[in-house]
Amino acid sequence: MRVDLMRRLALVVALLVPPAAFAAEAEPLAADPALEERVMQLSHMLRCLVCQNQSIAESNAPLAVDLRNQVREQFVAGKDEDAVVEYLVARYGDFVLYLPPFKGTTLVLWLGPVLLLIGGAGWLAWRLRRRVTEAAPPLTNDERARAAALLDGTANTSQEPRS
Amino acid sequence: MKAKFLVPLFIFLLLAGFLGYGLKLNPRELPSVLIDKPAPQFRLAQLSAPDVAIANADMRGQVWLLNVWASWCVACRQEHPVLNGFSRQKVVPLIGLNYKDGADDAKAWLREHGDPYDTSLVDADGRVGIDFGVYGVPETFLIDQAGVIRYKHIGPVTPEAVRDVLLPKIAELKRAG
Q: Where does the Thioredoxin domain start and stop, copy by copy (chain B) (predicted)?
């Protein structure tokens, strides 16, 4: 058991090492770790325009590197997060934001899922309520007698029941 | 309800319609936020004359094209003959923005493929490119007499784009100005 556990641990370590080694190749961090933390935090919320499904924090496209440097420089110059976002939106539009602003053109984007959820829940409630009210009608005397016969085992099973 | 079995079909057709339309969209072509806004301020050295800088003010009063290019850009090769042909027509000044390139590489590239540009501006660190919202080279901006960006073409300029879009827009701007 112990050997097995050790093996598993070794596997976990082996799987963790390559990304760590890869990270070492990334650009040198700024001297100030707190600043770098801010840069990365904001970069994760910004879309890389070259490889559109990555944030500029994840992408190593030259433009993403440039934009990260821009973010860092502007932080150093004393700008806050909002000012940097404004700077980028002025150049690349709302598309750079992974969290698009709530406005006319993004109304469907923001409200669509909520409307779908409400609509779906409403439809489901309607269906369920209808199912309750549409309970099966009570058995007629004839059907009751046949059911009793079936349960007693006296019914002629070769004969198909007529409905 | 008799037509109930048609509901899934209807939903399918609706989805297929949306998805089919989506297939035709090009996610790489993002509308520029700079359209109808003043071109960003720049002051850049020329490739052929590093001592002489060109700024927005130098282009005032005329309609002109800014073409972002680089010697490392493969698609630029594709559009280059079109630009060569365009500049021979002498319709408007064509200014190159040599984006994140080496001066020697850029000059060699122009010698090899021909130089359609009235001049090329050197944007070695890509800073002006970012100000223009460049995210893929080549991109081409149409700028009017007042220095306002009127149109942006993303990707290689094709002969059709010149004939059907750029030339009519240029003519319109020249008439207005």
A: 33-171
Q: What is the pLDDT of residue B29?
A: 77
Annotate A1-24 with three-state secondary structure. CHHHHHHHHHHHHHHHHHHHHHHH
Name the residue ranges covered by the structural domains of chain B: 32-176
Name the pairing type of β-strands B43-45 and B53-55.
antiparallel
CA distance A98 to chain B (A): 15
* H/E run at residue B65: strand B64-69
Q: Smallest Cβ distance to A90: which of B33, B125, B135?
A: B33
| pLDDT digit string, tens, across residues B108-159 | 999 999 999 999 999 999 999 999 999 888 999 999 999 999 999 999 999 9
Return the CATH class of domain B32-176: alpha beta
Q: Give alpha helix (H) positions in A95-140.
A: 107-133
Give the helix/strand (H/E) hosting B25.
none
Mean per-residue pLDDT, B21-46:
88
Q: Which superfamily, per CATH, for A2-101?
A: Cytochrome C biogenesis protein (1.10.8.640)
B136: chain A residues, CB-CB within 8 Å: 49-50
pLDDT < 50 positions in chain A: 23-26
Residues of A in contact with B28 (CB under 8 A): 52
Instruction: Record the tokens describing residue A120, joined without a space.
Output: 């779906």
B38 at A interface, C-beta within 8 A: no
**Tens-place pLDDT, residues B84-94:** 999 999 999 99
pLDDT, greater one: A123 or B176: A123
Whether ipTM tops 0.85, in short, is no
- Among A89, A91, A93, the residue with its CB nearest the CB of B130 is A91
Size of interface A-B (CB pairs under 8 A): 35
> B94-99 and B119-123 as β-strands: parallel, antiparallel, unpaired?
parallel
What are the extents of the domains in chain A?
A: 2-101, 106-152
How close A61 gets to chain B, by Cα (Å)? 10
Contacts of A128 (CB under 8 A, 6+ apart): none
pLDDT for res A158: 53
